[in-house]
Design brief:
Protein name: DUF2889 domain-containing protein
InterPro entries: DUF2889 (IPR021312)
Number of domains: 1
Radius of gyration: 19 Å
C-alpha cells in the first residue's frame, strides 16, 4: 500500500488532490455524486440529484464494463425531510421514504423499507444513506456567495441562539471537541473558505466517472470514489469530497479525504488502513485520521456499524466516518472482479 502524506502537513497545504487517478487494469471503481441546488432560492426546498455507478476495467484491456448504475432525484426541505423522491431504476419502496428526515432516523427507515439494498451493497444504497450527510453540510455552499448565509430571513443574527446550537454539538466529533475552533464562530466571523478544486473527471480517462451535469448557480456536490484491485491482498483506494460552486465559475472544497486500505482476500478483514486529510475546515479535524488503527481486523461488511462504535464522538470525524462506512460495500465490488 502506498503511504499517504503526513496528515498535518497535508492539511496545512490545504490542497485538493484534483481529478481521479486513471483506472488500473483489473480493477473495479464505484463513483457517486449528490448534487444539491436551491431552485426557489435560499429559503426554499433543496433539489437533490444523485448518481452512482460500478465499472470494471478488464485486466487484459478493452472497454470497461458498467455493472450497475443507480440514481435518484429528490426534493428535501430545510429541515432535511424528504418531501418527494424518485429512484432510477424504480424501486417499489421509494414513495415510503417521503416524510423521513436525514440522520439516524433515515438510516433506520432504509433498513425497514429497502433492506435488500444494504444487503446487496448496491450503488443506490450508498447515495440514499448519504442523504443524511449531504443535507447536513449543504447550506455551506451559500457561504461562497454571500457573507450573511447564517442570518435569519429578515437579515438578523441571534448570537445566543447560535451559541446554544454549537453547544448542543459539543463532542459529536473531533472538530466539535470542547474548546474547538468551531465554537468560536459567530456573526462576525466567516467559516472556513475551503480550498480551490477542479473537476473530478480526468480528461484523459473520460470513462473514469459516471455522467453528471455542470451545476448552475449556488450548488453543493458530495462525491465519492472507491477503487478496488485484487492480488495477494485486496487494495482499496478511496476518495471523498464536498465542494461548492463559486460566483467566478470555480469550485471550492470544504471536506476532502483520501483513504488507503489493505484487506485479506479470504476473510475480508482490514490489515492496514490510513487516511489523508486533504481539505478540512478546522485545525482540530485531522486528529480523527490518527485513530484508524481501531479498525484493524474489522470485517469490511460490518464497517457501517463498527465505525460508529469504535470511532464515535471525538475519536472520529463525521465526514471521515461516512467515507469509512461506505467501504462496507467493497465485498460487492470484489465479487464483480470474480465474474468472468
Amino acid at each position: 500500500m502506498t503511504a499517504l502524506a503526513d496528515p498535518v502537513a497535508a492539511l496545512c497545504a490545504r490542497n485538493s488532490a484534483g481529478p481521479a487517478p486513471p483506472r488500473a487494469p483489473g480493477s473495479v471503481r464505484r463513483t457517486s455524486t449528490i448534487d444539491v441546488g436551491w431552485p426557489d432560492g435560499p429559503w426554499g426546498d433543496m433539489a437533490f440529484t444523485a448518481r452512482a455507478r460500478d465499472i470494471v476495467t478488464p485486466l487484459a484491456g478493452g472497454a470497461p464494463q458498467v455493472c450497475a448504475e443507480d440514481g435518484f432525484e429528490a426534493t428535501i426541505d430545510r429541515d432535511r425531510t424528504i418531501v418527494a423522491i424518485r429512484t432510477f431504476p424504480h424501486r417499489a419502496g421509494e414513495a415510503r421514504l417521503a416524510g423521513h428526515r436525514g440522520g439516524g432516523h433515515l438510516r433506520r427507515a432504509l433498513e425497514e423499507i429497502m433492506p435488500e439494498e444494504r444487503r446487496e451493497g448496491t450503488p443506490l444504497y450508498l447515495i440514499l444513506d448519504d442523504i443524511s450527510g449531504a443535507s447536513l453540510v449543504s447550506g455551506w455552499a451559500w457561504s461562497q456567495w454571500t457573507n450573511d448565509w447564517l442570518h435569519a430571513r429578515d437579515g438578523s443574527f441571534d448570537e445566543a441562539q447560535f451559541a446554544r446550537a454549537m453547544a448542543e454539538r459539543v463532542g459529536i466529533c473531533v472538530g466539535f471537541a470542547p474548546g474547538a475552533t468551531v465554537h468560536r464562530l459567530g456573526a462576525g466571523r466567516r467559516p472556513s473558505s475551503g480550498a480551490p478544486t477542479c473537476d473530478l473527471r480526468d480528461p484523459h480517462d473520460p470513462q473514469g466517472w459516471h455522467a453528471y451535469a455542470e451545476q448552475q448557480g449556488v450548488g453543493l456536490r458530495r462525491a465519492r470514489r472507491i477503487d478496488v484491485t485484487r492480488g495477494e491482498a485486496i487494495v482499496i483506494d478511496a476518495a471523498f469530497q464536498d465542494s461548492a460552486t463559486r460566483p467566478d465559475g470555480g469550485r471550492q472544497a470544504l471536506h476532502e479525504y483520501r483513504i488507503m486500505a489493505r484487506v485479506t482476500p479470504d476473510t475480508l478483514g482490514i490489515t492496514a488502513i490510513e487516511a489523508e486529510p486533504r481539505v478540512l475546515p478546522f485545525p482540530e479535524c485531522p486528529g480523527a485520521s490518527r485513530t484508524l488503527d481501531r479498525l484493524i481486523g474489522a470485517p469490511l461488511g460490518d464497517l457501517r456499524a463498527i465505525v460508529l462504535e469504535r470511532l464515535r464522538g471525538t475519536a472520529g470525524c463525521t465526514h471521515l466516518n461516512d467515507a469509512l462506512r461506505a467501504l462496507a460495500e467493497v465485498p460487492r465490488l470484489v465479487s464483480l472482479l470474480d465474474q468472468p
